[in-house]
Design brief:
Two copies of one chain form a homodimer. By secondary structure, chain A is an alpha+beta fold. The first copy, chain A, contains eight helices and 15 strands. Chain A folds into two domains: about 160 residues, PSTPO5379-like, CATH 3.40.1640.10; about 110 residues, PSTPO5379-like fold. In chain A, strands 1, 2, 3, 6, 7, 8, 14 and 15 form an eight-stranded antiparallel beta sheet that branches. In chain A, strands 11-13-10-9-12 form a five-stranded antiparallel beta sheet. In chain A, strands 4-5 form a two-stranded antiparallel ribbon. The radius of gyration of chain A is 18 Å and the shape is globular. Chains A, B: This is DUF1445-domain-containing protein.
């Protein structure tokens, strides 16, 4: 794992089966991406869902044609030109783990979706907040789950998405990182620049739980519960040492939307936290 | 009023003081716009607020430089080119009525903001759902408030905006039009195409009231309550004749955001329903 310092190295490790864990902290400064793979008839609705909900669903790239898993059309435009997100990519193999959905419910987990991928499937890459964790760490604001080598905590919320075509009735999924209240302004400022990877937080502080409809900070629906700073207890259950939860839009939202809409057929996504890491580096996208 | 069939005619009528009423139904098929005018230091946060919340805050155009009220930079891009929104426009005079805010609260209503406009003010035009009412009418789905020559009903909701810089703590404002349940799919489809003027509805049906946090359908915060189809009672209070409320994002949202953020200094906006009508026609923007 020591050499997983580039996006390509992480992808190849996932592709060959030597990496099956979550990817927080790998290849720092490289953009990481969520994956959702939909039957072709749902693609127009999904593009519109992303346009209308760019904070939880920032669309980075998609299959250049239906069925394509290795040639992508980038939606990351800089100076009028699409930035290629990765050379040598295989959407069927390059996430360490995948979830497979059938008719809107989770069917099973796998490390390889190539046997399920058809010419009628369209893959979409959505920005991931792991992309700004390198910048937070550089600023002395290392996310706790990275320091503790855990998956981030992700929660279902009651905040509605703007509906789009077949996608109705869905809600935001959020990721959470604990920070001190006096750090929140700086955390907002640093992550604000990362427009296509969720940008600044959507809510913060303990009163955000009620606003977001999160009942139990210790029971995230995806990922792992955050621990206290000293690692001995569950964040928010024990002494919280003056930290508050800070919530960002999360690219698991499309998988939640697939379930809420009850989409028919085979849909595939990465297993939350187990991302496809891209070649793009944050300074190329946000400071280039 | 009979000749107010173009955007320019409506603007000139407002500019010369002969039009001081709301603009629903005027110049059918022409895009209508919400206005918000902010002190320059708030402009970057506002642009980001629009990017992060494109359904309630679709940014059409802004002052080409701070202080400019008649030269605009368009953000409506088609085939890589900005579409000019209007020749001969004066943001200080071309809305039939304005609201003036001081330090985040409403100060007064006026028909002319030229004495308050300074070189430090930046004007922003935001899409308005009046823009798709011509298309609805053409499809036999005439909005009731247009047929009854009333202002649309607009409501404050509890749905949070994604925060952006100084803009925190705000919520969606929505407009409402009654339709029969069996008409909702067609209404969604027709308005979906109008991406920069709020697009398809964000919620519909009586159970949407609770989701949006609207307590009283008969007491909108802006505009006028809808009436029953026969005009004799208040929609939702009397027999509703089988109609349900359908809600769209509304460009009054930025004015709500200014109040929630408590922005310092002089902020100006149109009076809700009293829009600036543009030269652009819907077929140029959405079917061109």
């Amino acid at each position: 794992m020591a050499n997983l310092s580039t996006g390509r190295a992480v992808r190849l490790a996932a592709r060959t089966g030597s990496l099956t864990t979550q990817t927080a902290g790998l290849a720092p400064s490289h953009l990481q991406a969520n994956l959702i793979v939909l039957p072709k008839p749902y693609a127009p609705s999904f593009r519109l869902l992303c346009q209308r909900n760019p904070v939880p669903c920032p669309l980075l790239a998609e299959s250049s044609t239906p069925g394509s898993f290795s040639t992508l059309q980038s939606h990351l435009i800089r100076d009028g030109t699409p930035l290629p997100v990765a050379r040598d990519i295989d959407l069927r193999l390059d996430a360490p783990k995948y979830l497979v959905y059938r008719d809107g419910t989770v069917s099973h987990e796998t490390e390889d979706i190539s046997s399920l991928w058809t010419d009628e499937h369209v893959g979409f890459l959505i920005g991931c907040s792991y992309s700004f964790e390198g910048a937070l760490a550089e600023a002395g604001l290392m996310p706790r789950h990275v320091a503790q080598r855990r998956n981030v905590a992700m929660y279902r919320t009651t905040i509605p998405l703007c509906p789009a075509g077949v996608f109705t009735g869905s809600t935001y999924v959020v990721s959470m990182r604990p920070y001190r209240p006096e750090e929140v302004d700086r955390v907002r400022e640093i992550t604000r620049a990362f427009g296509e990877t969720h940008g600044e937080p959507i809510a913060w502080g303990w009163d955000a739980l009620e606003k977001l409809g999160i009942r139990d900070i210790g029971a995230p629906e995806w990922g792992e519960p955050a621990r206290t700073a000293d690692g001995t207890g569950v964040f928010g259950k024990e002494s919280d040492e003056g930290y508050v939860p800070v919530f960002w839009g999360c690219g698991v939202t499309p998988q939640e939307a697939v379930m809420k809409a009850g989409l028919e057929g085979v849909v595939m996504g990465h297993k939350p936290g187990h991302m496809i890491v891209l070649d793009l580096r944050d300074h190329e996208v946000y400071r280039g």
